[in-house]
Design brief:
alpha/beta; Rossmann fold; six-stranded parallel β-sheet; 16% strand; lipid biosynthesis; transferase; phospholipid binding
């Protein structure tokens, strides 16, 4: 029997995660077919993309509403194709707003459905677990505390660890990172990561720049590096520098190299999100900040269950790094928080030890563990290589 695996991955992060999963599954199922919605990394692993994963990328509620008809059309067309030629299993990679609707209908057709990357129901929108229970044969969780939540709701779940923990070394080579970026060993270095999306850089770029310049007044020897992933975000940040009347030589903009910038830094100022987890895995002290529209922030706060938004604090279960959000995120407050880390090297060392423990918990060989969990969902009697 030909094994056919349908997948849907949204955005660049989902494409990368799914590509690693395809590679791990091929080790067990060398002749399997993979198809659905995916990006270039998945296609590099032999995936047949009926639509590109970037078609699913939306930025906030307004963009989602504007593109509802387009995305709904793609989803219904995909469902019709899957119903006409049922796959062996369906794997939804992230993109829960798109995938859960699809998974529910695919599951009703008798096809096992796996969702890879639990939605953050522990942070907000907890009622979504009822939809998940109807939609998912098995949930694959990146964080260890998530499985208990699903098991209480009757949803089979497997903890597979976080893929970044497999990629990042337990002991980052700070000297090599500084050498690569041509940064002197004795300099105080602050990495600024205002986000990967244009909306984030618009909201945080000027704020981060002003905080950096306040800190530079206290510590003239400090150097600032800003890794930006796209031309658009770079242009926005350069515009914010001009608005703040900051000379280009005061802040060094990098095209990419976020991991190297954080590894080389003494402290990181970072937008809340996956980058804060990356900083933790690189054992860097940080200050987490975020700003969004006022009405959106009020809505998010009303729906939130936890006292933190940053993954390092959530995973450690306490405030191990400061979070300065919305109105509390002022240039002065951010500069003070960054300066505190620079003035307390013993606290930086203690935090690095805490983050090393966290890293070891999250390092699980995620792709292989996920592949084995998926194989356990295959229909009875279907033989697989192991």
């Amino acid at each position: 029997m030909k094994i056919r695996i349908a997948m849907v991955a949204g955005e660049t992060s989902g494409d990368l995660l799914a590509a690693h999963l395809i590679r791990a599954l091929r080790a067990h199922l060398p002749d399997a077919e993979f198809y659905g919605i995916g990006g270039p990394r998945m296609q590099g692993e032999g995936f047949e993309a009926w639509w590109e994963s970037e078609r699913l990328a939306v930025h906030g509620y307004v963009d989602a509403l504007k593109r509802y008809r387009e995305l709904s059309g793609i989803r219904r067309s995909l469902l019709a194709r899957l119903q006409a030629g049922p796959p062996t299993v369906f794997i939804g990679v992230d993109a829960p707003d798109f995938n859960l609707w699809l998974e529910q209908r695919v599951k009703q057709a008798g096809i096992p459905t796996i969702h890879f990357v639990s939605p953050s129901i522990w942070a907000w929108r907890g009622a979504r677990i009822k939809t998940i229970a109807r939609s998912v044969t098995r949930m694959l969780c990146l964080f260890p505390f998530e499985t208990e939540i699903y098991e209480r709701a009757g949803v089979p779940a497997t903890y597979v660890g976080h893929p970044l923990a497999d990629v990042f070394p337990l002991e980052p080579d700070r000297q090599a990172a500084r050498l690569k970026l041509q940064i002197a060993p004795h300099r105080h270095v602050i990495a600024l990561l205002p986000g990967s999306r244009e909306s984030e850089v618009r909201n945080l770029g000027r704020l981060f720049i002003d905080a950096a310049m306040l800190l530079a007044q206290r510590r003239p020897e400090a150097r600032f590096v800003v890794p930006l992933a796209t031309r658009e975000t770079r242009l926005l940040f350069e515009q914010a520098m001009r608005e703040s009347q900051v000379a280009p030589e005061k802040i060094r903009i990098l095209f990419g190299h976020a991991s190297e910038a954080m590894t080389a830094a003494d402290v990181v100022l970072v937008a809340s999100g996956t980058a804060s987890l990356e900083a933790a895995l690189l054992k860097r002290p940080m200050v987490i900040s975020y700003r969004i529209g006022k009405w959106q922030y009020r809505l998010m706060r009303r729906m939130a269950y936890l006292p933190w938004v940053g993954l390092p604090n959530i995973l450690c279960g306490e405030t191990v790094v400061p979070e300065l959000l919305q109105d509390a995120a002022t240039p002065q407050a951010l500069a003070d928080a960054l300066d505190w880390w620079l003035a307390h090297p013993e606290e930086r060392d203690a935090l690095a030890r805490r983050f090393t423990e966290l890293h070891q918990v999250l390092r699980q060989d995620t792709a292989e563990k996920a592949a084995r969990a998926i194989l356990s969902c295959f229909p009875a009697g279907l033989t697989t290589a192991s």
